Amino acid sequence: MEEDDIYTNDGTVDYKGNPANKKKTGTWKAFPFIIGNEGCERLAYYGMSTNLVLYFKHQLNQHTSVAATNNQNWGGTCYITPIIGAFLADSYLGRYWTIACFSIVYIIGMTLLALSASVRGIRPRCYAEDNCNPTEVQSAMTFLALYLIALGTGGIKPCVSSYGADQFNDTDEKEKTHKSSFFNWFYLSINIGALIAGSVLVWVQDNVSWGWGLGIPAIAMAIAVCFFFSGTRLYRNQVPGGSPITRLFQVLVASIRKYKVAVPANKSLLHETADKESNIKGSRKIYHTNDLSFFDKAAVEIETDQLKGSVNPWRLCTVTQVEELKAIIRLLPVWASGIIFSLIYSQMGSLFVLQGERMDTHVGHSNFKIPAASLSIFDTLSVIFWVPIYDRIIVPVTRKFTGHKNGLTQLQRMGIGLFISIFPMVVAAILEHERLKMIKRHNYYELKEMPMTIFWQVPQYFLIGCAEVFTFIGQLEFFYEQAPDSMRSLCSALSLTTVALGSYLSSLLVTIVSNATAKNGKPGWIPDNLNYGHIDYFFWILAALGVFNLGVYVWFANWYTYKKAVGTLR
Question: Using one digit for the tens of pLDDT, what is the confidence trace for 308-366?
Fold first, then answer.
């Protein structure tokens, strides 16, 4: 058997640093450990975060708008910190050690949060169910724990999906076909963890104690780490390629220095290494593309490029290095479209919960009450329902019509998700309009729970879940596939920042709308008692933003040029 048949040829190595063996590492053999890790980590994260807005409101005694803002800001930070973890993974540590190191910070934060909700003297003192008086130190302890978790998750979020995809070789036809399915099942594991968190753990927090409700997620995170380390011998590891930020700036500087230099018509004259492999460690060469041609100037050779017999990288860059920058620039419009989608998605953890809290939370005619935050399980159930349908039905059917191996291109898949995401806001706005009509008709303004079942919220959650399957999974795969080999964690982090910016934008909009509408004695659109408010107007604004976002996305998607690495199979 030839060496190419035994070892991967995509630059991956095993845990000892030797070329990865195709038969003994990667593919579905490594899959259970990565999926187990992700499922338990997501159980921990969502178990702690799903009900967080109500913890802020009732345990930390914060006003509705303050609680929603703090929840959005913390959630946003959890999707900004991945830039730190991704940079370290791609540049120095590699994905394996980045996940390992940041998991320790994560566990410390989860443990401290559980202690802050359960240990006397640290937990807020409560005189009744909704009457708590936390000290500044107790509130500070909670936020310290939360932001340690935000830092810890920053090393895991951008690396785990990319690390799982690394287990499938782009140069092997069979493995590359399986990679697309991996992203579907990876996202399914996230939602199984979220399902348990949104049902069981939220119930524990509302009906048993916050100590247990936050302690169980800490235990789940410890199990996630055990899953990850158990698969060490089976993993394929991408070698870190040095600072990608430095390489990008080298192309910018070199192209600006040569702004007067003409790019040759024959692109084979552009500078590239003569070796089979790229000069970037762990990265394949990338074929030249014709768009964004200004940056090709960085690869045009002139006499002053040589510095004491060697190439000055700030004056002359390879075609692969130039194409890295082009790939990042092409991603930016697609990335921006994800911000509005995430703005819509983020309502599930804030205004949807606050809306549901004012509705009848009883299940049927029993005394059992479902926590408002637990309605998010219908988003999770929607994802669990749609993932296998997409993977086993939609892909094969659309493949017959499009001829594309995945049925739909990644851009088509995301576009469909953006279109679907408009409808949850429309449904939520109509529901709130009907709820407020009933309140006005029967004078229910001071009722804590009005006689309209919370299960009327199910359609808006289910539609968001459907949109997720198209947009978020498509985004995961798109940013991995279109990223240069040595920048995949960084591009995964870039895609995650859309969630952060969506949360921050939501927080900003809530603040602006609250301040603009709560004047002259009026309660405004988003008061503490939503029965006096008009969040239906806010939902209509979000629906309009979704329509605008879809139009801009379609325009840029038609312009996009896909990356093609040397040796990649189509």
Answer: 667 788 888 888 899 989 989 999 999 999 999 999 998 887 889 888 888 888 887 77
**Domains of the chain, each with CATH number or no CATH:** 1-241 (1.20.1250.20), 244-324 (no CATH), 325-569 (1.20.1250.20)
Among 174, 175, 234, residue whose Cα is nearest residue 26: 234
Q: Which tokens hold the place of 243?
A: 């600072």
Measured CA to CA, the distance from residue 477 to residue 467 in angstroms comes to: 15
Residues 6 or more apart whose Cβ sits within 8 Å of residue 276: none
Report the 10 Å Cβ neighbour count for 530.
22
Report in angstroms the alpha-carbon separations of 346 from 444, 505, 557: 28, 10, 24
| 254 phi and psi angles, rounded to 5 deg | -65, -40
Is 48's pLDDT higher than 50? Answer: yes
Q: Which of 255, 253, 251, 260 is nearest to 322 (CA)?
A: 251
How far apart are the C-alpha atoms of 374 and 349, rounded to whole Å? 10
Tokens of 499: 């969630």
Determine the Cα–Cα distance for residues 512 and 519; give it in Å rounded to an integer: 12
Provide the pLDDT for residue 2.
43
Distance CA 415, CA 409 (A): 10
Tell me: pLDDT of 10 over 70. Answer: no
The pLDDT confidence band at residue 480, using thresholds 50, 70 and 90, is confident
